[in-house]
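Input/output pair, single chain:
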Amino acid sequence: MAVVPKSLVIVESPAKAKTIEGYLGSDYVVESSVGHIRDLPGKASQLPSAYKSEPWANLGVDVDNDFKAHYVVTERSKKQVAKLKKILKSVEQLYLATDEDREGEAIAWHLLEVLNPTVPVHRMVFHEITEKAIREAVESPRDLDRRLVDAQEARRIFDRLYGYEVSPVMWKKVRPGLSAGRVQSVANRLIVERERERIAFTTADYSSVEAEMSSLTAFEASLVALDGDRIAAGRDFNAQGELNRDDRVILTRARAEDLVTSLQGTTFTVKSVESKPYRRRPAPPFMTSTLQQEASRRLGFSASRTMGAAQKLYEQGFITYMRTDSTTLSADALGVARDVIRQQFDAKSLPRDARIYKKKVKNAQEAHEAIRPAGETWRLPKDLGFKGRESSDDARLYELIWSRTIASQMSDAEGQTVTIRLEGLGQRSELVEFGTSGTVITAPGFRLAYGQQADEEDDRELPNLSEGDSVTASSLKSSEHQTSPPARYTEATLVRRLEELGVGRPSTYASILETIQRRRYVWKKGQALVPELTAFATVGLMENHFSHLVDYALTARMEDDLDGISTGELETAPWLSDFYFGGLDKKGEPLPGLRDLVSDDRLMDIDPVEINTIPIGVDENGQLVIAKVGRTSPYLQRGEDIRSLPAGITPDEITLERAIEILEIPEERVLGQDPATGLEVIVRPGTFGPYVSLGRFPKMPVGSSPGGQLLSLPLHKKELKVALSYLRLMTDNADDESVRQAVKNPKRGIGDAALKRLLQHGQSNGISLLEAFEQAEQAGSSAKVQKAIRGFLKMSHQIAEFQSLDAPAAVEACLDKSGYMKELRSEVNEDRLANIVSLVETAGRFESVDELVQELNRINDLKSQPKPKTASLFETMTIERVT
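Output:
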């Protein structure tokens, strides 16, 4: 007879469930929630009928009722929830064993709300998946922590309000498909600001002289002073290419080469030898952010790749929980680490007392431990079962975590740092001073386990010299240098900067980095994060119109406030109210509320052409050269001349000279005619290099023109198809498809069968569908359909009268009279309504609705033309070389 389990344990992932079930035995059934089972609705239609028509329905948050969140079980979770409910009926108690952080606590609360158990419920928490840890967790459960749940809910609501209110502004003013977010927008701003610094940077040229000196052993030294003046190095220049110190002189190329000649055969005298003791403490054990940074530096992993491997290691019971901002090790873990050091390294590597690390970044959750190997004994990387796949991500990451944890409890690295100064006279009596320094490690300490740390220089041993000793230069050389602009952020350095600013949480950084790349705000050049022009546009939009949402100090304060909610110092509803409806900053100055910032009146002040234009400079004729974001790809423009930006070009490379060079590439060159088709064979420049085409592409309107603005709208969306059908109907340009769209949206009592009959009547008599409506009786339509058609024709005559209004007013009046706006508003779909608002705004670029419709027809004619055949050429080829 099968044993019936007495307890249900719910964890987050199936892999974790399988491991834990093996530890608990047959009295327990372990199932997973597969992540969150409930969330705010993606759109209003997912809410119960009673709420669908509420003004806040699309947000899923009742902003007028203390920001009450309305959750729905996600579609992917419905089957799993049903399974959990079924199991729950046959057990005696329930253990909620989700992760012990805000997200995990919230998942446990949602499970409690949805499953509504009638059996005793326990909150089971653990930091590592080992048999001992799991059994201790079962024996020592706790209550659900409502403060953690409140903190997570506040973050979720805040992020929903931010994303759902600001992202549509991006869609209207920049490009559909973009997004905004509390941490994401700040990350984009950091990357764009660094690129702006690189663009503004002025390069400075300087030279240096290096010598290989000979004593008992050879060593290298560099010129540091000439005739008593200190020689400038790269660090002595500012971003404008000027010296930032008065006591430095620039060594020119000619002077450096002259010195190399003059110093040949010179004997140098040791002027000074300075020796200092060197001592370096090991770095603390990993928390989430430092693991991401070091895995990037040492292993070349992206943040998401690191977290994926860490998740797998945690679920297999190899490491402790990997989402933590603590560097603390438990007393047991300290004991294990010291045992490993005794067994694997010499006695000198073990300090007398265990090292205790305190978290330096604010808001650490010290209840968690640092990321470390799991268990009562820590298996060596070679003993962990990775044989044959030692180069796998999880194997390499485990070795990094093991090494860092062990190293954190080892002795300091000790040695001596020696600085030597040498003097000599050149053939022209120049007094020169060379310098060199090096560090000799005498006691490696933690380096035995971890090697050098990120900010340590390579060891360099120097000969044992004393003041007054003579040294000869066996060779001398001069080198030319240029100052370098600030380095772009990598994933690792961006994570470190966000953490320094107090923006975001370690657990979110990987997903943020993934989002800004997936949304095409940034791309990677090697490890460097390069902003697209789209990022410049969106960051400019945020800085000029939502400045406090990307202000570093204010965003960090938001993070502090959210932590204050978790500790009970702040209440959620008043805090959200200040953000959404308006409040005061720390100085008592009023801060605008988000709702006001995204109001129609405010949005009318945002010029999309200005937002999407990046000035490059003015050419010698006084013509402005600009870069534009573009509908599909960025391009350069000077007057009527437009050229696509080459793929892979970075913003700091788009100088005025480079832009003019691209703009002056011939737009095309006709190579001849194809004998078979008679079409021209044309070579053109393209984003990915030159290409040839058989025939010409239709010339679509440029992005800054009224037609270009119309084309930038998502015209494939149903709401815009319907709206434009009504505009055609209003201007007597309605084709059969436009009439059909207008009849169906909203429904007017003219069904598919009736429409088919009328279409057939029109085809038989050579007339349009609209004309067939006038002959509905002859077409055999029923009396009911004829009545509906009379109503439709009456409406079409009424909207035709709006043509005399200016274009935006005509569009609004037409859609209101048609009944279509009423239908859209009843659906409470903000995205669809936002697209209609964009159409109304775009209509303002035209003199009349008739002009708008004529331009739309012209664009459709261009789109319907057959596309020419194309073939790419080598990127290195120029248009002039192609024959």
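The mean pLDDT is 88. Residues 202 and 240 are 5 Å apart (CA to CA).
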